[in-house]
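Bumping my old thread because nobody answered last time. Still need a sequence for this structure:
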């Protein structure tokens, strides 16, 4: 195990070196030239990088420098296929916003105002080349070809488990508009997207699309990079998606902080909060929610219902694959936060009874 992680680290360095030469297209392209000059006026851009608004609280954390060399638990991947439901997404009706989760943070929301696709990763891996961070069995049943026409693609940040070149290459012709944080438009343009179909938002900026969907970018406490040498050159964000009277919050990735309560006070309450839950490490306590913090964030947001995401598809941390959900449930019950935990591909329409079957209780 130690040798395999060492080899993975060496391979990552080689890919980074190759990417610097522009030979790996999936790495994308950082913002360049005149675009960068405009960033200096942004409140959250300083000294050549985007900044979080909160004070870092993990500077005194005793980091486990050699954690990547330690043996991981055998339960980090499920022993059997993750249960899924195969839904015909093209014919699926949605009189109220209907959410379909594909594992990790890939989500389709069908509404009467249009179809929203969030952070799609259908290439079955989360890395610059195939073979890196491979998907669990049972999570590979949905492909780009299964998606309906996409009125708006929403990207939260540029990490490979949220911004996937191979998926977007297949979907590009069926995406009417893309809403992304500041800087990520450079990646999409490099991959062949029409610049006129890309809307970049900074925190608190919003846009109303032709069909009536209203999207607001809100703060998140995270970071960005697609190579080791490009940290925080593009922004990261959470989002508020409003379809008629319904409001949905999507966290993207990010740690706990006062921004959740600020968002709740300004924009809440929310009919549904899609909040990250899982892939946590003691080495990054500031950029991901600790297990119990997901329910706390839902309270701060004034969410009527919480659906955990960012779990169930990839191994990105050293805990059992379902530990996050097992720890979330009692915390949510204690705080009085209703949960919706659908299977992969199982539609949930706002207003219906939440999905609560325990389909994930195996190793």
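Sorry it took so long. Here it is:
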């Amino acid at each position: 195990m130690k040798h395999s992680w060492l080899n993975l680290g060496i391979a990552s360095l080689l890919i980074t070196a190759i990417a610097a030469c522009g030979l790996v297209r999936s790495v994308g392209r950082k913002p360049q030239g005149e675009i960068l000059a405009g960033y200096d006026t942004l409140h959250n851009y300083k000294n050549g990088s985007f900044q979080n608004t909160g004070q870092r609280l993990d500077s005194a954390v005793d980091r486990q420098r050699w954690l990547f060399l330690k043996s991981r638990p055998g339960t980090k991947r499920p022993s059997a296929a993750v249960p899924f439901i195969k839904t015909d997404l093209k014919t699926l009706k949605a009189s109220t916003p209907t959410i379909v989760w594909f594992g990790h943070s890939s989500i389709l929301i069908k509404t009467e105002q249009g179809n929203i696709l969030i952070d799609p990763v259908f290439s079955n891996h989360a890395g610059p080349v195939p073979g890196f961070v491979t998907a669990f069995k049972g999570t590979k049943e949905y492909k780009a070809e299964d998606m309906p026409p996409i009125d708006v693609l929403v990207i939260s940040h540029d990490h490979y488990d949220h911004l996937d070149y191979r998926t977007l290459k297949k979907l590009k012709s069926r995406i009417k508009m893309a809403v992304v944080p500041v800087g990520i438009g450079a990646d999409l343009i490099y991959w062949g997207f029409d610049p006129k179909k890309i809307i970049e938002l900074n925190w608190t900026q919003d846009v109303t699309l032709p069909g009536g969907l209203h999207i607001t970018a809100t703060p998140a406490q995270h970071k960005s990079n697609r190579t080791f040498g490009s940290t925080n050159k593009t922004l990261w964000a959470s989002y508020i998606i409003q379809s008629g009277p319904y409001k949905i919050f999507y966290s993207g990735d990010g740690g706990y902080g006062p921004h959740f309560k600020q968002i709740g006070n300004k924009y809440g309450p929310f009919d549904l909060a899609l909040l990250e839950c899982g892939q946590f490490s003691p080495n990054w306590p500031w950029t991901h929610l600790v297990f119990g913090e997901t329910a706390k964030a839902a309270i701060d947001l004034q969410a009527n219902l919480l659906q955990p995401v960012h779990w169930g598809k990839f191994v990105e941390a050293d805990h059992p694959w379902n530990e996050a959900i097992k720890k979330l449930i009692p915390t949510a019950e204690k705080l009085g936060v209703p949960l919706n935990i659908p299977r992969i591909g199982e539609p949930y329409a706002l207003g219906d009874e939440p999905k609560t079957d325990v389909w994930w209780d195996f190793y």
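Residues 64 and 283 are 6 Å apart (CA to CA). Let me know if any region looks off to you.
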